[in-house]
Structures are given as structure tokens and as C-alpha cells.
Write a structure and sequence with these properties.
The protein starts with a helix and ends with a strand. The chain has an 8-stranded mixed β-sheet with strand order 1-4-7-5-8-11-9-10, sandwiched between helices. Strands 2-3 form a two-stranded antiparallel ribbon. Strands 6-12 form a two-stranded antiparallel sheet. About 50% of the residues are buried. With about 425 residues, it is α/β, with parallel strands linked by helices. It has helices at about 5-15, 35-40, 40-45, 50-60, 70-85, 110-120, 150-155, 200-215, 240-250, 310-330, 385-405, and strands at about 90-100, 125, 130, 165-175, 180-190, 220, 225-230, 265-275, 300-305, 335, 355-360, 410. The longest helix has 21 residues, at about 385-405. Helix content is about 35%, strand content about 15%. The structure holds zinc ion (ZN). Zinc ion (ZN) binds near residues 188, 200 and 201.
């Protein structure tokens, strides 16, 4: 089936959920003409707010780069949990797992170095099956503390990771008619690079937290459940989300205790991961420099993996976000791509519909150096303008609208 046909069908099904009479819909876009008056989801989306989103990113940056296996990472998990509780997203819970870092990689051989160099000549294959275009800048993780000029932040980020026990926190909005099924809405709270991990992934973590705040309002009821989870150890190889899959996959949909109506692990209906939500200044220029401002064409990139078992279901979920964006996002459009990779939705992609939401495509764009703050000391709250933060807010509007539709959210007054 063609992508455009699928998109048309999802638009139709979303419009069918709205309360507007069919006669009020224009045939071109099947959008209710008076949706501001009748659409409760519009009111839910309006409860998102740029200042609250920014304040949540700012709150996360007080823990520096939140590197996994450090006291500042554990303090950030505690802080996130306290915020979730203050929103009424209770009870909260934690996943506990053990992380032992792999031994350091041996230095590259001459042949490997040559292959890496060759990737920067001509048209390059990027991760996830993507193809890089245009000017490609080298990317990497900063490991040099001296590149952080802020002495206070440098000191905060100095304690190194210690192997051992790790935790990650979640809370759940329980569905009223189908508590045994849920969507997972996620971001990763750990970072690296000697900055504040404001964008990677304070921006995605804050988005998930703000959705938890809105959906926890007592006047919103959903038919199905929603789990808000902030993964740890993404930067070491998706270890926190892998631990979740290992521990919880077999528990799906089981009532426990029997007859209680409680489902500790509702059946997974879909996973929506948020990772780097703010910076879309375009492609590096020919001289390797970047635009100082958010490009006017900035967009929210929703990706599924075409080489996964659940590609068809994931694609459908991606279009649900694109359609929600058309309806609810105030400033920036959404684009769907087929090369989801390198984030916490990946361990789920052969088990359930799984997508990622980002500022850029991970493979062809971030992989080609479109985000010069990525894993660098410059990933600081103060680096970003309101136009950058607003892209994160638009991604929040996009996911909130889609999840509200998919879980049958209603306002109960
Ligand atoms: Zn990330």
C-alpha cells in the first residue's frame, strides 16, 4: 500500500472520532470546520505551555549531563519522580537493573580508519538504512573536560560513571475501560558530553513529563492506559529500555492479583520515543558553519523502521502523529521517515508498533552533523532560543493529540 493512501485512511479515521457533523467537514482535508468549538483534545493540547516546557528543561539541567552511574544521574531520577508525583501521576514506580560497561574498544586498525574516511567521500550511507546528502560534518562524543569553560558545570560533571545498579522511573495513567492495554510515551533522561544535556535529551524528557502533567489532570479520562517512562542508560547502548523489555515483556496484559482489575504491565499497543526535540537549523553550510537561528522550515521528524517486524503497524502510528500535527501543532509541521534508529524505541520495534520523534532524522541529518551541540559541552539551556524550544513544544502538541485520539481521551466536567 502506498504511503499516501495510508495517510488518507488515517485522516479519515481520526476525523471519524471527532464530534463534528460530517456535513461540516471539507472534502479536501476531512477536517471539522469548527473543531475549536467541539474538540476536547484541542483544549487538552492548549494546556501545554512554552514557559512550563522550558522550566522543565531548565530543571533537568541543574544535574549537569546526568551521566548514568553517577550521583547527579540518581538525583535527576529522584527529581523527575518528585515532579511526576506533583502532577498527580501516581503511584510512580522504578525499573531496577544492573549495568556493567563493555570493555573499551581497541583502537581502530588502519583499514577501519580508511573505511571511516571513505564514508565522508561521495554519497554516504547513514545509520538505520539512511542516505546522507550535502555537506557532512564529523560527529562524536566530547570526552575532554577542559572544553567545558563553565568551571561550576565542569566540576559537577567530573565524577565518572561507576558500574552497578541502575534505576529508571515511570508512572501510568490507567484507562477506564481498557486498563489492560497501553501506549508507552518515553524519552531518555541520561546524557553525555560535559554539557547540560539540555537538548539530548532534556528536551524529550521534559516533553514526556509535560504530557504526564496534562494527562494526570483529574478531568481527563482515557479508555486505554498510557505509561510515561524516562529511560536511563540510553547513551551506553539503550540498556535501560532493553532491561525494561527483558523484565516486562512476558507480564503484558496479565491481571495481578487475579480478579483485582489491576494490570501491572498492560499489553503494549505502541511506543513513542522522544529524543532531541529542539534544534533544526538546517544542513551545515559549505564552509561547515551552521545557521544561528531555527530555520523557518523546521519540522518534527517522526520515524519508523522499515526493516522491522512491525513496520506496517509502526508506519500507521507515525501517520497518526503526522495527522495530529496537522490538527494541533501551532507552528511547525511533521514529516514521516522510514529509518528510525539509535534510540530507545529500537528494542521494541520487532514486538510492537514503535516510532521515534525528533528535531531531525537521526540517520541522514543528525548523523551528518545537523546538530553541532550533540554530545558536546555546548548542549546548554542558554544555547537555545524560544524558536528552538517551540519546536519541542510542537512535538509535545503532536504526540499529545495523537495519544489522546488513540486512547479515547475525554474531558469530564
Ligand atoms: Zn538522545
Amino acid at each position: 500500500m502506498s504511503i499516501s493512501l495510508t495517510r488518507f485512511m488515517v485522516i479519515g479515521s481520526l476525523a471519524g472520532l471527532s464530534a463534528a457533523p460530517l456535513a461540516a467537514q471539507t472534502p479536501q482535508n476531512a477536517r471539522p470546520a469548527s473543531d475549536s468549538a467541539v474538540d476536547p483534545i484541542k483544549e487538552m493540547v492548549a494546556r501545554l505551555d512554552l514557559e512550563q516546557y522550558k522550566a522543565t528543561v531548565k530543571g533537568l539541567t541543574q544535574f549537569g549531563d546526568r551521566r548514568q552511574g553517577t550521583a547527579r544521574n540518581r538525583a535527576a531520577v529522584d527529581w523527575i519522580e518528585a515532579q511526576l508525583k506533583s502532577y498527580g501521576c501516581t503511584p510512580t514506580a522504578r525499573i531496577t537493573y544492573d549495568f556493567q560497561p563493555p570493555p573499551p574498544r581497541p583502537p581502530m586498525t588502519a583499514e577501519q580508519r580508511e573505511r571511516a574516511r571513505a564514508r565522508f567521500a561521495g554519497n554516504r550511507q547513514g545509520p538505520g538504512g539512511s542516505r546522507m546528502r550535502g555537506k557532512v560534518m564529523p560527529t562524536g562524543v566530547n570526552t575532554d573536560s577542559m572544553r567545558q569553560p563553565d568551571l561550576k558545570l565542569r566540576a559537577l560533571n567530573t565524577p565518572q560513571s561507576v558500574a552497578g545498579e541502575r534505576q529508571e522511573v515511570y508512572c501510568t495513567k490507567v484507562g477506564t475501560t481498557h486498563p489492560e492495554e497501553m501506549y508507552i510515551v518515553s524519552g531518555h533522561m541520561d546524557g553525555i558530553g560535559w554539557g547540560e544535556a539540555a537538548n539530548d535529551d532534556g528536551s524529550g524528557t521534559a516533553l514526556v513529563m509535560q504530557l504526564a502533567r496534562v494527562f494526570s489532570s483529574p478531568d481527563i479520562k482515557t479508555d486505554r492506559s498510557i505509561r510515561f517512562i524516562l529511560w536511563n542508560n540510553e547513551e551506553t547502548g539503550l540498556n535501560g529500555s532493553r532491561a525494561y523489555v527483558e523484565q516486562r515483556e512476558a507480564l503484558q496484559g496479565k491481571e495481578d492479583p487475579a480478579g483485582s482489575g489491576k494490570y501491572p504491565e498492560p499489553k503494549w499497543l505502541g511506543v513513542i520515543q522522544h529524543d532531541m526535540m529542539m534544534f533544526d537549523h538546517g544542513m551545515p553550510k559549505a564552509d561547515g558553519t551552521m545557521s544561528k537561528v531555527q530555520r523557518p522550515e523546521a519540522d518534527v521528524n517522526v520515524e519508523f523502521q522499515s526493516n522491522s517486524k512491525f513496520a506496517a503497524e509502526s508506519q500507521k502510528l507515525a501517520w497518526a502523529l503526522a495527522n495530529s500535527n496537522d490538527k494541533y501543532a501551532t507552528d511547525y509541521p511533521a514529516q514521516v521517515g522510514q529509518h528510525m534508529t539509535n534510540t530507545d524505541s529500537q528494542p521494541f520495534q520487532d514486538l510492537v508498533a514503535s516510532i521515534s520523534v525528533r528535531e531531525n532524522e537521526r540517520g541522514a541529518q543528525i548523523g551528518a552533523g545537523w546538530d553541532p551541540q550533540w554530545h558536546q559541552p555546548t548542549d546548554l539551556f542558554k544555547t537555545y532560543s524560544d524558536d528552538d524550544f517551540r519546536l519541542g513544544l510542537n512535538a509535545a502538541q503532536t504526540t499529545l493529540g495523537a495519544i489522546a485520539h488513540l486512547t479515547g481521551a475525554k474531558l469530564v466536567k
